[in-house]
Write a structure and sequence with these properties.
Chains A, B: This is 2-polyprenyl-6-methoxyphenol hydroxylase-like FAD-dependent oxidoreductase. Two copies of one chain form a homodimer. The first copy, chain A, has 409 residues and is α/β, with parallel strands linked by helices. In chain A, 38% of the residues lie in helices and 22% in strands. In chain A, a hairpin with a 5-residue loop joins strand 4 and strand 5.
Chain lengths: 409, 409
């Protein structure tokens, strides 16, 4: 076969390419950045891979970070109510967070070592038609605007018309990790969330602070303050907002050592949550499949985007290995296979950023604080967003789930 | 839980009920016929269970017909072209055909022995609303017109507006079975198909002759001739049409012994192929799931209806066992799980009855006559309609499949 062309060298494109190379399928990945550029530049995100993703990495033979030091074991929750709630939840198998400037170049090396073709060139929608003549199938796995726009946004699955959080994520030194090592998910009602994530970066084991700021809330300033204008003032502002809103993290900070690990290790902005159509038909009659951010973009508040992209890549890869006729039947099979997990990921994440929070979400969080099994199920379901949505899709579902844990209304 | 209510005691309702009883889910099956009525009356069909269905029967603990005598091992094809084609195809595991007047009462007995509740009462759409208040979920697994009509017919998946074959199926003595024992699929171009099926009925191991008659063709008369007016004349007509069109079957008939096994062992009519919506929402807000003939009706030409109903029941049962909140999310999960197999069953069957036949179908049949592996794959795919449709959905797919067997255009 003339093989598969993949536009985008993020986790979606690379996991798909690596899976196909295991079965000797010819694959070309197109990227607008070189491996060196992927390794440099600004912090792209603060992604954790949950255990279902880690399991796929093992199957792909790219589990290079399997030592205990890279993993964390659960979530420490803090909800800043007048009477604060503070409780942990544990995974059935650990997660890990790696700086994608380390991760992506390493697995891109695996891809090329294994016979994958990597081509650096910009690709816009007009180029996709040309690539479709050259390959049996083209997969668009890049969230860049003009490429995403090839796949219509689904209004029924995209409830917001603007980003719901203003984001500020940076890598910091001077924060002792929680015990047992975990992500701290801290909620400041009306202001937003802080995700404190143990992450491996160029400076070693450091801490990502991902502030998810509600527009108009007290921490919104973090998304707009300019580090480069006055690094010390910026770090002082982060420290102060952490002290005011997120005491479980603040109590582990040594202010004397607290600093951003580098001027590039900061990302500010926001994402518009979108679910798009699974595929499109080009004027030449060929079909193009959307993957990763080209298909679904979620707010990072529950760390699902990369995991969902990896899952979706895996299901697409399985379908390619079973069926090499890339017509609408093929595309429909891909859509059927991934819909439950991908849409559940979007629906759950969209619920988590709703302002004000849904009463049934608050009910579940309250129950988690009182029942370890409930907290652990919610926590482990970061690996199973479809099961999470089975619990959270409606007030009735939360009631039934809690009743199953002996917690009647 | 208040349990599951199932309307209909055919294979769909009973397989679902038996699966749920294995997990102690309360189940009530509603039928307009008693067990005795199911065991009597007119021949309802001439169904074969293919090996994926037999495997489910094993899992359900209802594999009461596991002796070699009940099974058959493949298909004997005959295509009455000027230069006739005649060739076999073999399964990877055998199929079996049982008279449903034996099969359904026996597994209904299993259902009630295992704590299932069986209630004899007519149910119309107005009653479904009442039943929905009594049960956690109501499943409609009956193809009776007013019940099916609760689920809109999908025009995109229902290409015909009338039955494509006029059917005449009866049970006969006086036909030696083929060697190795199999179904003979005989095609008389322009007139239709004969399916000759070894089947176990009240008279023991007999033969079903299912004539699939194209309207206007030479055998159409079989669907209209009245056995009761003159049994000998009817049998003589069947014999004569078999002699004229289906020599592979005729050569094994002993005319002196050839007879219908009983006046009730004959069914004439036709079916309108229909794919319907997966579920509907009642005015009280509860959802009702369509199963079996209420969801999808296919012409019997490739023996898929009952197998598809059993498959669909199994997927619905799995979903019920995983998730007991019967809202739209639940229904959507069921729809996603079964769509590929159920729609492939309908699409494949609709292709098989198209007049004139599609060139790519003829191309595949020709290739089967020349290549045993191609014939065996097509034959075994009676257990895998989704894989069959992967081969047959388009001319391009047939070409690719044949190229994979070294048969270029």
């Amino acid at each position: 076969m003339a093989g598969i062309g993949i536009v985008g060298a993020g986790i979606a494109g690379l996991h798909l390419g690596l899976q196909l190379r295991q079965h000797d399928v010819p694959v070309t990945i197109y990227s607008d950045r070189t491996a060196e550029q992927l390794a440099g530049g600004r912090l792209p995100n603060s992604v954790a891979h949950h255990h279902t993703t880690v399991a796929r990495e093992r199957l792909l033979g790219i589990d290079h970070w399997d030592a205990e030091e890279y993993f964390y074991f659960g979530h420490h929750h803090y909800i800043g109510l007048p009477d604060p709630l503070s409780f942990p939840g544990f995974f059935t198998a650990p997660s890990r967070a790696l700086d994608y400037r380390i991760y992506l170049p390493r697995i891109l090396g695996d891809f090329t070592d294994r016979g994958g073709d990597f081509q650096v060139r910009p690709v816009d929608p007009a180029d996709v038609a040309e690539l479709s003549d050259r390959h049996d199938l083209v997969v668009v796995a890049s969230g860049r605007g003009s490429l995403s726009a090839m796949f219509p946004r689904r209004a029924d699955k995209s409830p917001y018309d603007s980003p719901q959080r203003k984001l500020c994520v940076g890598l910091y030194e001077g924060i002792a990790h929680s015990e047992p090592r975990g992500v701290t998910m801290s909620i400041s009602p009306g202001n937003g969330e802080l995700l404190e994530i143990p992450i491996f970066s160029f400076a070693g084991h450091v801490t990502a602070l991902l502030f998810e700021n509600i527009p108009g809330g007290d921490t919104e300033v973090l998304a707009e303050a300019r580090y480069d204008d006055d690094p010390a003032a910026f770090e002082k502002l982060v420290l102060e907002k952490t002290r005011q809103h997120h005491p479980r993290t603040f109590e582990r900070i040594d202010p004397a050592k607290f600093r951003l690990t580098g001027p590039q290790d900061l990302l500010q902005g926001g994402v518009l949550p979108s679910v798009r159509e699974d595929y499109t038909r080009l004027p030449n009659g060929k079909y193009v499949v959307a993957l990763g951010d080209a298909h679904t973009v979620v707010d990072p508040v529950v760390g699902q985007g990369a995991n969902c992209a990896s899952y979706s890549a895996w299901e697409l890869g399985r379908t390619i290995l079973e069926d090499q006729t890339f017509d609408e039947r093929f595309c429909r099979k891909v859509a059927l296979r991934r819909e439950n997990v991908v849409h559940a990921t979007a629906d759950w994440t969209n619920l988590m950023v709703r302002v004000p929070p849904a009463p049934h979400l608050l009910q579940l969080l309250g129950a988690m604080s009182a029942n370890q099994a409930v907290a652990d199920t919610f926590t482990d379901n970061f690996s199973h967003p479809d099961r999470q949505w089975d619990i959270l899709a409606s007030p009735e579902r939360v009631r039934k789930f809690l009743a199953g844990h002996g917690m009647a209304d």
